[in-house]
Amino acid sequence: MLDRVISRESLLRLVDDLARSRQIVGPVRRGDHYFYERVSEASSLDLGFSYCVYGPKSVLLPPREVLFRFNRADGSFETQNVLDEAPTALIGVHPCDLNAIRLLDRVFSRTHVDPQYQRRRANTLLVGIDCPRPCTPGVFCADMKANEAGEGFDLLCFPLQDGAADDKLMYGVVFGTPAGRALVLEAQVGDRPLAAHERALERYRAAKQRAFPRRIPYDVDTLPKLLERSYDSLLWEATARRCYSCGSCNLSCPSCYCFNMVDEVDLSSRQGERFREWDGCQLRVFAEVAGGHNFRPQAASRLRHRIYRKAKWIREREGLPGCVGCARCDRACTAHINSVEIYRQLAEEG
Amino acid sequence: MPSLEVSDLRRGRDLYRPEPAEVVAVQKLTAQENLYTLRFPDGGPLGHEPGQFVQVSILGVGECPISVCSSPTRPDVFQLCVRRVGDVTDHIHRLRPGDTVGIRGPLGHGFEVRELHGRDLLIVAGGLGLAPVRSLIQYVLDERQRFGAFHLLYGARAPQEMLFSNDLLLWRQNPDVHFLASVDRPDEQWRGRTGVVTTLFRELPELDPASTTVVIVGPPVMFKFVVLEVLARGIPQKNVLCSLERRMKCGVGKCGHCQANHIYVCVEGPVFHYGELKALREAIL
Question: Model ipTM?
């Protein structure tokens, strides 16, 4: 069921309205690629983007973020928590990435609430855009059941006439939260959906079903069980022979959230900050302890760790997919390690 | 988004921001290990359970996870045994009384001492493993009437590497604990037992498999051999507890560094039932 129908032009006007009270972040074209960037007006956004290289993790869990500042001058011990208070609207998030954000939300609110993530997330309005067809060859989001999003957005926009010229494009909009509803209704943009729009959405969904290929020859809900018998498979070593342990897969993954914490002092050596930065389980020293012992010294054990996390442990622990099938890892891999290929080979592990 | 919850760190106002604590005393234990006695400015307790750890901060250098080696029954101060092994511990070893360090915690899952009340205890510690388990030893001695028989086995590589020599002397004379120690490589002054820690099992009286809980803390190589001795005495696996070491950064189950297979050691551990660890291929080497 649609809540509103909004033309592309009205949606952009809504974003420009939002820009008066929030910073706007959305897909911006740079050469052949798209990145989430801060823009001052909606016309800079490319809402028909394929995918953003780094995904919305780069906005909600920045690659480097200060946790607190400190002053240690003359033996003192003063610390000041740092939170990002800037109200933000993140415009143009595809379903795979909305699913990845749901996982981040879960992880950073579970057991110990992460104040930095929590505050930024609470200040962020999410406007999703559904995908009528795969953004690029190689994705397996439909296999991962992540090419649709039922929740985790404030607004989700369905481009009802796929392929229509920009000035004709109508979005069918679903409200995900009271904040999303208020935003649209208070701005008085768009119209109440008619029966014809609902029929258009049905046609859209039917076409979408056909447009997404299945690339993994089994139901991914069986992956945790499948992996139970693959721990000692030669597949890990055979694949990891090519791995350079560069961590590109981790950095480009929208649902990888591991981090490192690092201190830095200014030139006076009195003040400084502790920040966190993205880290990756494929890097050689990731599981090394003081004294030099490494709990995962081989690339094969690290590759297995990554796939088990994505396909089994996160799924079991959080009840959400750890991999959303965006294939960013596969495109980023300098050694052409392909996760679909790994998932396919797992099926042969009978 | 889920609603904002209060952080469940008992000390510490923000999840990643350490609270200052004053160094009250520094005691040299061995060539590599010092014992630090710390106190919060408000005089309040750390609020820990034996077996839990804290993240110790040196501003500008970083953090490292250290087990609390004193018992919550002695709440005015708390103690940390620190081996000099990396950047942060190197700086900790330069601290003097009156200096300030940062503390986050207590963190992790400890020994759940209430579950141990009424039990006979056998504690087996190897090397630096005596530090985390000392919090439990002190607790048992302070709450002695709550426990049955109490055996303590300690193995060190060499006499000069033995930790807490003052404690060892007291435990030897204390009728509340049956204490045995051994070293692998004795020197000329050593008058005690020699051999790996498992050789001490020969001197143990019969243990009641139903009422005995065994606690094993030490280097990974030790676990398997001690567990073997324990199982050979008919003690069920569910009554065996172990404590693990991993690289820990956030200490709150997010950053991923301490994961052993699907387990976050910093949150679900460092203390585990042996039964849980047995299924973890990355847990025991």
Answer: 0.90
